[in-house]
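Hey, resending since the last one bounced:
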Amino acid sequence: MKIKNSPVKIKNWCLLFAVQLLLGCSHTSIHRSDYFAAPTTKQNGMMAHQHIVIKALESESRLEAVLEFNEQEMTAIFLNEFGQRTATLKLGLDAALTVRKEALIPQSLSPKHSMNAIQHIFWPTSSLIHLDGWKIVENESKRSIFIEGVLVADVEYGTRCPWSGNSRYVNYRYKYSLTVNSSVLNPPQEIEQNAANCFI
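The structure tokens again:
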């Protein structure tokens, strides 16, 4: 005797498989690295919104990011161009990075690389130079990051306040680049008082 599956049953099985597949793509991991610097106290209470274009090899991805700072950690939420969450990053005061990857994450997005890029672009020099082997060379419009004497990244700033403006970031070690358009949703007092140069 042959058992025929109804269209409804087949549809239900397909939906169940799709849900299991999506759940299987979401997982959390914790990373500790000498290349992460903890958030600064001056960033506490700040929230920023960013439009990001990532270029790696011959591929290009567009992302939206929301960064929020409190007394304990920085949280960065990344969304793809369809509005779907791709990753959530949390950087604590101990410089430990917690990463939650979601489904449909772009191949060009590495959460650890994204955290490095955020710090290379936005963190003040004083927070980075204490990392082992790091050297920062910068002027009003450009920052170069050296690790163990090797140039690993350049940042070109469209304004002197990277939190409220355009930046272009090139990572030579991992061969990708970012164009970031950032705006501060609730600027802390440090930015309001010193808008001409607001690395915090």
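Helices lie at 7-24, 111-122, 125-128, 189-193.

Sorry for the duplicate.
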